[in-house]
Design goal:
The protein is an alpha+beta fold and 704 residues long. It folds into 5 domains: 140 residues, Nucleic acid-binding proteins (OB fold (Dihydrolipoamide Acetyltransferase, E2P), Beta Barrel); 236 residues, 2-Layer Sandwich (D-amino Acid Aminotransferase, Chain A, domain 1), CATH 3.30.470.30; 80 residues, Orthogonal Bundle (DNA polymerase, domain 1), CATH 1.10.150.20; 84 residues, DNA polymerase, domain 1 (Orthogonal Bundle), CATH 1.10.150; 68 residues, Rossmann fold, CATH 3.40.50.10190. A 5-stranded mixed beta sheet has the order 2-11-10-3-9, sandwiched between helices. Helix 1 packs antiparallel against helix 2 and helix 12 packs across helix 13. About 1% of the residues have low confidence.
């Protein structure tokens, strides 16, 4: 792991390896939390890992992965429930962990909207319930269906179960014809204790905490079991609407309350950041006496017109953030340091700890980032922890919140054993023995073995089947390792996955009864593989595991090229032309472009890609679903200063209306929007015959 090194000290190579590690950890945690109702880490740990991921992506946007936790919401719906596609995606929230994060959130909103620091901007603040997200769709006042969040786009149909919850109305009077109410199903402490007591008396299943109990109760295949469980519901938002609920967040919540929904009584309107912080502290103080679990406070821009202007990122709204409560620290003994090799060859140190309970969670390992962090210095050689290095046998402080969880934050030199030795970071790969080289300016030491390094090969295959990529049911990290090490039925390249059934034969003579597979599970695996022979373009691009190409970048590339053929043609053509086209895509820089070009120029890489593509039907990118958009499918460039809309907002509006936004003018440009002080781009557009409009014409064009 690239663990525990402060984000602002990470080199690009370190960041790349760390993002790969975090993607795997958080995907596994999401599936355990949302599908199995059996979390493998506490929310604070999950949030901190996700926050570290987001911080790295903010510093190195070109490295963002397609299976990045910032691109994921929840987990795919579990089997056993009918699937419901949400009319409006159910998104997660970005997190703040201190007042600095909160002030940066406010500053980002003001920059995006072009508001001055002293301009009025009200927020609502409400407790963040630690429960299960639920969407309720009403038509003509009647409850039509209820669905869990799932992966944000598709959830599980739990209508019959939700209808047993007393605080969820079956019928509404005076509601919009179409109304999707969103909120949180939770269990009160007293009800949770009573439920566990009854279960203990009868020998039934007991739950670890109220959130698990609520999730397990809501997702019962038998609604009568849910009916017997004491669940509650708070409404806090909405999805599809046939008419507005109000002009502000608070007015809309008041309308929901008037329709019969429970709305948290601690929700307040705050006119300043100081008021937000004061309300956060009040809720934190009252937390032990609420009678239900909360893990922070959610802030939302109150004005719904401003919310609409701010819009959304890929998985989170720009206008809301969750201010999480701080977690805890503990001291334990560092019993060993292991070195793991990642997909890109990065050697990452992992602290093996004497197990210690930190805030209710048993922690036995932690991240150590890199050799600099172990030695007590940053990437520039400046001391961290006052220069204290980390040694096996040390008494170390483990931190479960903030930048990364869990992490080794400090060392108690007074408890250091007399025979403790400085840690010698390996200069050869522990997996393949190849030299491990640290390039100038890079804080990560990297294996040079490439394709001959089994660790890199396995990690790349794990990435290929990861959630944001091919996501083949039944083929996870454990199975990939087994297949990679198997001599009779090996999987060494992605294409090998799609020849498994053919190589095994009709009687499953190689796979059956080996590696834990039976005939049914083997045939289920082959069926799942066949279902992935048709794959969306953006997933294919991400699955290739090309350095610097994350999920967002893969989606940008897919939208730009539209088809695999166009994408491949660009990257296999003249390098200069490919570089020019790639860097013209808004969000694609020269580093990412060069990485793409290099991947397709590498003979072994290209052969593996061609072999894979031969087994697949790669779907063209779907054009954004927009109605009556004058710019759908067009390529736009913005230049100069816009006075009535910030450039960031203009770009977001254009993309939401189905347009592509490029960073430079070319023969492919359809429209140039020229603000004040437009320079050379306007001249180039006129020379190429590209239509040039001013800001007023732009606003008229999009109906703003």
């Amino acid at each position: 792991m690239e663990a525990d090194r402060p984000v602002d000290k990470l080199t690009e190579a370190e960041a790349r390896a760390e993002l790969a590690r975090l993607a795997d950890l958080l995907d596994a945690a999401n599936r355990a939390y949302y599908q199995a109702d059996a979390p493998v880490m506490p929310d604070a740990e999950f949030d901190a890992l996700k926050r570290r991921n987001a911080a790295i992506e903010a510093r190195f946007p070109a490295l963002k992965r397609a299976d990045s936790p910032t691109e994921q919401v929840g987990a795919p719906p579990a089997e056993g429930f009918r699937k419901i596609r949400h009319a409006v995606r159910m998104l997660s929230l970005a997190n703040a962990f201190d007042e600095g994060d909160l002030r940066e959130f406010d500053a980002r909103i003001r920059r995006y909207l072009g508001l001055k620091d002293d301009a009025p901007l009200a927020y609502t603040a409400e407790p963040k319930i630690d429960g299960v997200s639920l969407s309720l769709r009403y038509e003509a006042g009647r409850l039509i269906h209820a669905a869990t969040r799932g992966d944000g786009e598709t959830g599980e149909d739990v209508t019959a179960n939700a209808a047993t919850i007393g605080e969820i109305p079956r019928r509404l009077t005076g509601a919009p014809d179409i109304l999707e109410v969103r909120g949180e199903v939770y269990m009160r402490h007293a009800d949770f204790q009573a439920l566990n007591a009854r279960a203990a008396e009868t020998g039934g299943r007991t739950f670890a905490n109220p959130r698990n109990a609520a999730a397990g109760s809501l997702r019962q295949l038998d609604p009568e079991i849910t009916r017997a469980r004491p669940l509650s519901f708070f409404a806090y938002s909405w999805g599809a609407l046939s008419e507005p609920l109000g002009a502000t967040q608070m007015a809309a919540l008041d309308r929901l309350r008037g329709l019969g929904f429970a709305v948290n009584p601690l929700t307040r309107i705050c006119a300043t950041l100081d008021e937000l912080i004061a309300h956060y502290r009040e809720i934190e103080t009252r937390r032990p006496d609420l009678g239900y679990d909360i893990d922070g406070v959610v802030y939302k821009v109150d004005d719904l017109a401003l919310q609409a202007r701010l819009g959304f990122r890929s998985t989170t709204p720009r206008w809301a953030i969750a201010h999480k409560f701080a977690a805890e620290t503990a001291w334990t003994v560092l019993e060993g340091i292991d070195i793991q090799v990642g997909r890109t060859g990065a050697l990452s140190p992992v602290a093996r700890l004497r197990p210690i309970n930190v805030g209710g969670v048993l922690v036995s390992n932690a991240t150590l980032h890199n050799e600099d962090y172990i030695e007590g210095r940053d990437s520039k050689g400046a001391p961290i922890r006052e220069g204290r290095d980390i040694r096996v046998g040390d008494r170390v402080k483990v931190y479960r919140a903030g930048d990364v969880i869990p992490k080794v934050a400090d060392v108690d030199l007074g408890a250091r054993p007399a025979d403790a030795q400085p840690f010698a970071f390996p200069e050869t790969c522990p997996e393949c023995g190849s030299p491990a080289v640290r390039e100038p300016g890079d804080s990560v030491r990297r294996c040079t073995g490439g394709l001959i390094c089994p660790a890199q090969a396995v990690e790349r295959l794990k990435h290929f089947v990861s959630r944001g990529a091919f996501d083949i049911e039944g083929l996870g990290a454990k199975q990939i390792e087994a297949f990679h090490n198997d001599d009779q039925l090996p999987v060494r390249t992605p294409a090998d996955i799609f020849t498994l059934e053919e190589r095994d034969g009709a009687n499953l003579t190689r796979l059956k009864n080996r590696m834990g597979w039976g005939e049914t599970s083997a045939r289920n695996l082959f069926r799942a593989i066949d279902e992935r022979r048709r794959i969306p373009l953006h997933r294919m691009i991400f699955a290739l595991g090309i350095r610097h190409v994350g999920e967002t970048a893969a989606q940008l590339l897919a939208r730009h090229f539209g088809s695999w053929r166009a994408f491949e043609t660009c990257l296999t053509g003249p390098a200069e032309e490919a570089m020019a086209e790639l860097t013209a895509i808004n969000g694609v820089g020269p580093v990412m472009a060069q990485s793409l070009i290099d991947a397709f120029a590498n003979e072994a890489e290209r052969r593996a890609i061609d072999e894979l593509a031969a087994h697949l039907e790669i779907e063209d990118a779907e054009a954004p679903r927009v109605a009556d958009s004058a710019i759908a499918g067009k390529t736009l460039v913005f230049t100069g200063t816009l006075t009535r809309m910030t450039r960031a907002e203009a770009k977001a509006r254009a993309e939401a209306l189905g347009a592509k936004v490029a960073g430079s003018v070319s023969a492919r440009t359809d429209l140039l929007v020229a603000g004040e002080g437009a320079g050379s781009k306007a001249g180039k557009a006129e020379a190429l015959g590209v239509t040039v409009i001013d800001e007023d014409a732009w606003l008229d064009l999009i109906g703003a």
